[in-house]
Amino acid sequence: MAENTIGLKAFGGYIPRLRLQRKSITGANAWIAPNLVGKGKGERSMGNWDEDSLTMAVEAARDLLGTDEDRSHIDALYFGSTTLPFSDRLNSGIISAALTLDQNIQAVDVASTQRAGTTALLHALNGVAGGGNKEALVCAADHRKARAASVQELELGDGAAALSVGTDDLIAKFIGSHTLTIDFVDHFRGSGEEFDYGWEERWIRDEGYTKIVPKAITEALEKTGVSASDIDHFVMPCTFARLPQKLAKMCGINPDTVTDPLGAVCGETGAAHALVMLVHALQNAKPGEKVMLVHFGGGCDVLIFETTDLIASMSNKKGIVGSLADRQEETNYMKFLTFHGLVEWERGMRGEQDKKTALTTLYRNEDTVMGLVGGRCTETGVVQFPRSRISVAPNKPAVDTQEPYKFADRKATILSWSADFLSFSMNPPNHYGMIVFEGGGRIMMDIGDVTQGEVDSGTEVRMVFRIKDFDDQRGFKRYFWKAVPVRKSVATAQAAE
Amino acid sequence: MARGIKDKVAILGMGCSKFGERWDSGPEELMVEAYLEAMQDAGIEPTQLDAAWFSTHIDEIGTGKGGTPLSVALRLPNIAVTRVENFCASGSEALRGAVYAVASGAADIALALGVEKLKDTGYGGLPVSNPGTLNPQLTPNGSAPGNFAQLASAYRAKHGVDKDDLKRAIAHVSVKSHANGAKNPKAHLQKEVTEEQVMNAPMIAEPLGLFDCCGVSDGAAAAIVTTPEIAKAMGKKDIVTVKALQLSVSNGLESQHNSWDGSYFHTARIAAKKAYAEAGIEKPREEVSMMEVHDCFSITELVTMEDLFISPEGGAVKDVMDGFYDSEGDVPCQIDGGLKCFGHPIGASGLRMAYEMYLQLQGRAGERQLPNPKIGLTHNLGGAPSQNVCSVAIIGAHDA
């Protein structure tokens, strides 16, 4: 392999399990938006109430990283999103803490454009190409809000993707790129605003996409010396039907190489969507194929990759293909509106509890809370959560013998549980229970992504990083880990793949 | 083992307020109600009290902290008042303080009084609590029923009990207590219910329905204790003494170590063993005449029958269905109606249980009176099955 070869080492993907049926949106809104009834086809991904761009990015990254505890090989993290939960608190720092990445890491938030995902990827490629980083992790996720009865509500989806960039064991070599920066305002979201404001679609299509994208593609092909006819996968997020094919053709690229924009099964996942589509394309790619990744927004990014023989080594990843298969149909539009904060609903007095977070406590227990790291007694081997100075071991409460012990990627089952209708929950009944881990340790924790009657003692679960509580009074979110049932059908489907 | 408390302290008098939704009363009025009855029963003047122990659990809607709320409400003669709090065992904790003071000789006569005013929250159920700064970041936003309901799933898994069979057994637990409570004018709920009603009630926390949960009430209860010698000198007959007072507190084993299977109370078994040893009881199933246990939820009472070694392990469902714990059964349980019918004003409950045992032992329980009981057991649990405090107290006839 050439000395200065850089590229992608691995990928991961995550699409929330809930899929809102578009018909349930258009049906509910037909009285006010009869023009949208025809768009009531297929489904869009819908984060659960406790998911946001950070939690989804963490899931995508965990898919990429696998269960290996040693993550010190990652020395940079780039996170692209237009829905960062914090305006001033390093969002990628939260991802880093959840993934228990090394503290000696450069973590960067990339925001403010639909190209945030591709831009984050370009930063990572540049960082590794320049020798500053050895292996960079890139995450992109978006969890956008749209007004009820809007087109966006139907077209958007929630999701995340992750890629790692390095110089060896590449699954796809980076051939080159080109970026145009143009202040073409097809839509905008003012600082502190919840919703996008968009301009006329025909103008965006004709003056935006049709003029800017071919220019960027042409430059990229010229710079890299790649022939348009060599492109095997043309990956471009776009909600205009047939427009990617038209643009590909304009540039001499075979329109049949245009990959599925996933509109019917997922929706447009914003700044994540280029990487979501790229991961999806890579899961369908064969060795030695050229992939062109294009993302339009405030200009245009074009990146070209060529897959290697190692692409086959990624078959164990859930990726976007596996995430799309792990789905649960949701037909309750009110639930969607409630999760997005678009309905003032009666929470009851139990929902009034102050959720102020003691930041001192959070920092003191950072790896416990954010990384689900407990302790292991070096004398007895007894593991526990949380860590403590005196071990819980019943027969040998050794003092100061604990070393950090990670729980997040261990197999676990439910010992005891209940579905609680009394306590406040954003998605009642509130499921929680005692989770026991293979190899020792247990945690009383929330059970998420669950429907009533689905779990019992003995049900296998896995850990996910989620929002624990909202502190609306102060604009803070608490994150912690929850148990979600391991679905046998999905596990089997993955094994069969 | 230490020599223990057996027969060192006698109950001189007891009092218990009417329990219920006491919209008319604040904690002060409830305290006075229990206190005046106890003082009349004891036949003493306030100046004869040497010290007092005061139990209440919730600050926000209760009396506030410290010993002053009791001293002010009762206009005590500036004696020592110690506020104690130990979750749902707080009332038993107050009794322990007063009893130990008398046993040590530091006090001749001591008062224990517990109160809780729960119905000032604006909603049903126990108030939502905020325990410290780390717990809310880690633990589920659960509820008492959600925590205790988990016993059912673990008990089913361990003993292979069918879901419906367990649901029917815990329904019988509540039916029995309602039948008892219907005969108690001080109970909050004085109405009989049927098994079908219980089984078909709205779900609170799976598998616990509305009637599987105890009521939420306001109330207060009090005990005045002294030495058996002083009681005798005061001309008291049918003297009731304390036989055992034990408390066991979780150390994190259940919540952090996989040796606990979730189906029983680790602490209750320890407290029960120690209490039987302290009281000199060898065969509890035969020697205990009656019990008031912490039936915060029907499933709690069911597993407690095994934890107190009255039913054999895995045998509680059968005993319950056989009526072993009914008022006509071998060991009547919750003869006053239990938490089920009294509700659970947290700081008061332990003392309320002792009040019924005391009345029964003195033959003063009216329509509920059991034939010639000798030994009564009270039991409190506070917290959750996975982390809790458990108290077991045994009182009995002085000559028993």
Give unreliable regions of chain A as ranges: 491-497
Second rung of CATH, namely the architecture of the largest domain in chain A: 3-Layer(aba) Sandwich
Distance separating the two termini of chain A: 29 Å
Strand composition percent of chain B: 15-25%
What is the number of domains of chain A? 2
Total helices of chain B: the number is: 15
- Poorly predicted tracts of residues of chain B: none
Determine the CATH superfamily of the largest domain in chain B: Thiolase/Chalcone synthase
Q: What is the general shape of chain B?
A: globular
Multimeric state: heterodimer
Q: What would your notes on this structure say?
A:
The complex is a heterodimer of chains A (497) and B (400). Chain A is α+β, with helices and mostly antiparallel strands and 497 residues long. Chain A has 2 domains: 7-339, Peroxisomal Thiolase, Chain A, domain 1, CATH 3.40.47.10; 349-372 and 407-496, no CATH class. In chain A, 25% of the residues lie in helices and 27% in strands. Chain A has 13 helices and 22 strands. A 9-stranded mixed β-sheet of chain A has the order 5-4-6-7-1-8-13-12-11, sandwiched between helices. Chain A has a 5-stranded antiparallel β-sheet with strand order 20-19-18-21-22. Chain A is globular. Residues 491-497 of chain A have low confidence and may be disordered. Chain B is α/β, with parallel strands linked by helices. Chain B has 2 domains: 10-120 and 218-233, Peroxisomal Thiolase, Chain A, domain 1, CATH 3.40.47; 144-210 and 241-395, Thiolase/Chalcone synthase (Peroxisomal Thiolase, Chain A, domain 1, 3-Layer(aba) Sandwich). Chain B is 37% helix and 18% strand. Chain B has 15 helices and 11 strands. In chain B, strands 3-2-4-7-1-8-11-10-9 form a 9-stranded mixed β-sheet, with helices on both faces. In chain B, strands 5-6 form a two-stranded antiparallel sheet. In chain B, helix 3 (90-104) packs across helix 15 (346-361) and helix 6 (163-181) crosses helix 12 (298-307). The two termini of chain B are 22 Å apart. The interface between A and B is large, with 55 and 47 residues.
